[in-house]
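User: I'll paste a sequence; please echo it back and then give the predicted structure.

Assistant: Echoing your sequence first, then the prediction.
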Amino acid sequence: MDAQQQLRRKYAGKTIVVTGATSGNGQALANLLLALGAVVIGLGRNVARLAELECRGGIPYQLDLSDFAAIDEFVTWFDLHYERCDGLFHLAGTTLVGEAGAAEFQAFKAADLDGPVRLAEGFLSTMNRGATVAMVSSIAAAVPEAHGLRQYAEVKGAVASWCGQNRARFTASGANLMLIAMGAIATNVGRSAGLGGAFNRAAEMLLPPPERYSPQILKDAAAGKPASFPGRFASLTTYQNGTCQVRVGRKALVLALEAGVWFAHLGK
């Protein structure tokens, strides 16, 4: 049995919720799950792209992860329409380059940490035994000293810490809590964050597309791993005791991320 057949055997007919399903990593994962025969509820903010997801066979739901009341409403909606859930993959994410003011930082934290945690907690009692709750973080959490990424790394590190602190509790409920320590991948996150020009051109030219790594994420989830490391440079890191750590090549990783920050500033 090849890898694709194994994934189909695991996910066909399963009910999976994917955040960020209208672009980037979330869209790539939602498309793969649909191809594998899963029932995919795709969450996102872009109405037009949610309509495209519906045309591909997905079930669209418009949701802003920084809106906690809307998250609670979605949990109630899901409970009314579905008996149980087999997977919740948080792949919605924004970026934060440089030092943000208090309001901008809190908005970033709400969308990338507080909202996803609230949704994960809301779904815990709905999860089937053997289900996966996957939370996206970043390898930047391993090198908070990288210039221009302190606040971004702080929030992504908090995601990793939350996963470490709560993994045993989720396991006791029958669900695997998995961290996704995302490496460098060509997505449209730069455009959504207001970056453009050189940053986005360089990302599209030099980095692999998210479709390359979606099978890895699903394979790691199926194996019950505590963490998945998709993307370029992710192999330099590891996840231990609730923290992302550099395994080898710390200086090279810092330089690579700082180069991304430099391109981001060029694009503004």
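The CA atoms of residues 100 and 106 lie 9 Å apart. The chain has one domain: 3-267.
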